[in-house]
Structure formats: C-alpha cells, structure tokens
Amino acid sequence: MIDLPILNQPETAAPARPRKPDWLRVKLPVGPEYAAVRKLVDEHKLHTICESGNCPNMGECWGAGTATFMILGNICTRSCSFCAVATGRPTELDLDEPRRVAEAIALMKVKHAVLTSVNRDELKDRGAAVWHETVVLTKQLSPTTTIETLIPDVKANWAALETMISGGQEVISHNMETVGSLYRLVRPQGRYDRSLEQIRRTKLAGHRTKSGIMLGLGEQPDELYQAMDDLVANGLDILTLGQYLQPTKRHLAVAEFITPDQFAHYREEGLRRGLKYVESGPLVRSSYHAERHVNVPV
C-alpha cells in the first residue's frame, strides 16, 4: 500500500495576539493653547519627545502648558525590550544643549517642563552635569516654570545621582517600568533593587519622588501590589500606571489589555497602600497630568 501525501493540511496557527480595544482610541488634539504651542514648535523646529514618541496625550498636555524634552542625544546604551529608542554607543556630548533646551522652554512659554534622557552609561557621570545645568538654566530663564526630571538608572553611581537631583526641580521621577519578576525580560540591563535604591536615596535627599509602571506585559495583580509596597517602603510619593503598547514587531508583544475598570481598581489599591497620588489609566504615560504632581506634599 502506498502512502499518499495529505493535501491542504492546515498549518499550525501562531498564537493570536489580543486585539486593541476601543478604549485606546485617541482624540485629535484641539484648542487654542495647543495650537499656539504647535505653531512655535513648527516655526522654530523645536524637538519634543511628545511628538517623537507619538504620545496619545500630546494635545491635552500641550493645552495644559506641559511639554517633555529629551536631552543627551537619541542613542541609548541600554537595550530595553519595550523601548523604540536606538541602542548603541553614543558618539557626541553636546555641552551647549542645556542652553538650547532652556531657551526652547522659555520660547514655548511652557508652564511645566518634563525633562528626560537616554541612558549614557559610557559617561563617567552618566550625563549628570548636563542634567544639572539644564535644570539650572531653565529656572534662570523661566523662573515660574516648574520642572520634573525623569532620570535614568545611574547604575549605583550615587555621586552622579546627587548632581542630577540638585538643580532645583520640583519632581524627580525614575520609572520602574515593570514588576520584579519581569525585569530580566523588560529591562535586561536594569535591576529592580537598584532602581528602588535610587528612589530611596532621592527621597532621603528631601525630594518629591515619582515612578511609572507599564501594565499588560504579563504581570500578575499580586506582583503589582508587591511593587507598590516596595515603592512605598522606599519613599515613593507619585505613581503612574499605563497600558504597554508594542512600538514595533521587534519589541515585546502585549500580553494583555487592562480594562479601565481594572486601572481604576489599581489606583484605589495604590492609595490604600500608602502612595500619595496615583495616575492610572490605559492612556496614562509618565508625563500625563505632570503639572498636578508638583502639588503633592513632600
């Protein structure tokens, strides 16, 4: 008997990825304040991470007078599996950048500026001098502008941390990004305990502390609650919780879309566990409602 090949046999299907739900739809930016900032950005060719990061809240934040700027270049020494920023060895250090950023903030009449950066592990001071000067010059040119600095992991260079946080900013943020069990997957060059220590030292220096966690990467509720407890124990004041969205097919896939009701529950749970302020929602990003965070008691 001859065995004949079986034709039209279905191929093994790849695991289905969750479909993006309706609650992640974004409204188009509108309003006169947004339009005024949009005009300045276009006319003067200013760079904001709000645009380059395709932030869903750009219109709302610009309308409230908040904008986010990225300093220290656009090449990161880390290779986090959730982030679309290019990875490599940076070749330049622009020492004039603090002046230009401060002038851009003044030109845009930004009420609340958020500064962030790539990781610069190759620099002895992790870029701390540029961080410090950018904050100081911004305060000189725009004395009524409040500032949040979303600083990277200094890899336990605590002298660099001291320089980064001593410029006079109102809020100092360092994102945990995820729960402890997912750190090797999400932040392979980071360490959960080291980031907690960075937040602890920032709080001990007398500052208003903030962090952010992305949800939908496969974390379990109990793991998130543990992260909240760890953050409270290390002096965190403000936490943002938002939905992770895969930037490209090369990055980590979304494991789950968290519902608005679940985000609301997590907000209440964070406050119950001792956090002073929690922003929690599918479209929440680190800078969302950042202008409100300067009023959180230290």
From TrEMBL:
**Positions with a binding annotation for [4Fe-4S] cluster 2:** 76, 80, 83
Q: What does the UniProt cofactor note say?
A: Binds 2 [4Fe-4S] clusters per subunit. One cluster is coordinated with 3 cysteines and an exchangeable S-adenosyl-L-methionine.
- Where is the protein situated, by its record's location annotation? Cytoplasm
Under Gene3D superfamilies, the record lists: Aldolase class I
Q: Which UniProt keywords apply?
A: 4Fe-4S, Cytoplasm, Iron, Iron-sulfur, Metal-binding, S-adenosyl-L-methionine, Transferase
Principal subcellular localisation of the protein: cytoplasm
* Residues annotated as binding [4Fe-4S] cluster 1: 50, 55, 61, 287
Pathway(s) it belongs to: Protein modification; protein lipoylation via endogenous pathway; protein N(6)-(lipoyl)lysine from octanoyl-[acyl-carrier-protein]: step 2/2
Instruction: Please give the name of this protein.
Output: Lipoyl synthase
> Which gene underlies this protein?
lipA
